[in-house]
Amino acid sequence: MTFSSLIFLFAFFPISLLLYYLVPQKAKNTALVVISLLFYAWGMPKYMVLLAFSIFFNYFAGLGIARSKAADKRHAALTYMVIATVVNLLLLGFFKYDGFLIENINHLFHLSLTYTPLPLPIGISFYTFQALSYLFDIYMEKAPVQENFINFAVYVSFFPKITSGPIVQYHDMVDQLTHRSCDLVKFGEGAKLFIIGLGKKVLLADGLNTTFTAVSALPANGISTLTAWVGCITYTLVIYFDFSGYSDMAIGLAKMFGFDFAKNFDYPYISESVTEYWRRWHISLGRWFRDYVYIPLGGNRNGLAKNIRNIIIVWLLTGLWHGAAWNFIFWGGFYGALLLLEKFVLKDFLPKIPAAVKHIFTMLMVMIGWVFFFSPTLPSGLLWVGRMFGIGAPAAADAAGRYYLTQSLALIIIGAFGATPAAARIGRGISAMARGKYRLALRIVSCCLILVLSMAYMVNSTYSTFLYFKF
């Protein structure tokens, strides 16, 4: 079940909302746990045991860390921390990286080890990182231990964020587990954000994904330069509207249940450097790696060589977090190299370059990066990038390229415009011209229009899950 499914919109969500607001205040977190576990079980019931284990194990590990620290047993606290971290990473690795590891061992040592691929548990990368955030925050004393098991279960399993984030750090959510409220204004803001996210996903991402799916099914060694660019551009927009749409929906849902989560996207495609881009894209993941990997490794405090080492480690891990394949590791290393280049080589030169040139170069790098992201293998990604620049392409343009460009051009233009703050500014400008009750009516009508169009598209189209579900 996804946020953009009819059963969620017309059954699960309204029933859950009704249940949450009907139960007494003391029972609201219990209701959220039940709702969240049902939501997760709907998609992957056989992995409920894994989620339950994560909740129980990390709850008691956190207690062990906190009580050891309270008794001034630092070695015991560290032991709890290390064991808990290893167990979490082993579980994640077993389900996500076992095949990748065995394939590379076979290739390296000329072996024939066999394995049975297991379906990746939905959300395991996200809820594991949130559990680790809890343990790290307790160990570093950034937040108090959670003595209440139900409250901790809400933190790990809260359904808006369990499948694809945002990755909410424990110290940002701990107070909201016991003290939160939702008035009519806040509820309306959440509903608006949810509907905007739904529109992003259904009207833009799914629409553009039709073209990308068709283009990506073509043999890469036979596509023209134009076709390669159409595939790259459509995917660049698809993944933005798909993932930012999900994040908007998750944050909006959380708001309707009284929680406030920070935004996960901030118009990344207007960036003038790769550094700026990663301050705007998947913000919660970047913060997680900064707070729990980069800074503990020493950040930029221990000299140039160690700073470079820390950046490389963070970005290789970022690539590996996204997927168990060499193309994802290359993708992470690609961004790590670009960030090092900007930070240490071009730092004095970049301010002198016109903003438009910097923006074009940044988007070119981002789009090249997305090719390796969507390609099934590293060689196929290199082949696709080569075709984009005419290397080995049978033609600059062909009938397929012209057809797919014509088919998707309107959505590409709308998407490119919608990925900038200009669309939001125009909306605010129109809203500002209306006064009083007319302003509220305009907002309601706009949201209703997006909702109706989205539902009409959902009824007449095939099911399309969110891209980040596979991570």
Automatic annotation (TrEMBL):
InterPro entries for the chain: Ac/AlaTfrase_AlgI/DltB, AlgI, MB_O-acyltransferase, MBOAT_fam
Compartment(s) where it occurs, according to its Swiss-Prot or TrEMBL record: Cell membrane
GO molecular function, one term: acyltransferase activity
Pfam families reported for this sequence: MBOAT (PF03062)
Keywords linked to the UniProt accession: Acyltransferase, Cell membrane, Membrane, Transferase, Transmembrane, Transmembrane helix
One CC-aspect GO term: plasma membrane
Chief place where the protein resides: membrane
Record flagged with keyword Transferase: yes
A GO biological-process term: alginic acid biosynthetic process
Membrane protein topology class: Multi-pass membrane protein
Recorded superkingdom: Bacteria
Ranges that cross the membrane: 6-22, 49-66, 78-97, 117-136, 311-335, 355-374, 381-397, 409-428, 440-459
Cited PANTHER family: ACYLTRANSFERASE (PTHR13285), PROTEIN-CYSTEINE N-PALMITOYLTRANSFERASE RASP (PTHR13285:SF18)
Family indicated by similarity: Belongs to the membrane-bound acyltransferase family.
Protein's UniProt name: MBOAT family protein
Highest classification ranks of the organism: Bacteria, Bacillati, Bacillota, Clostridia, Eubacteriales
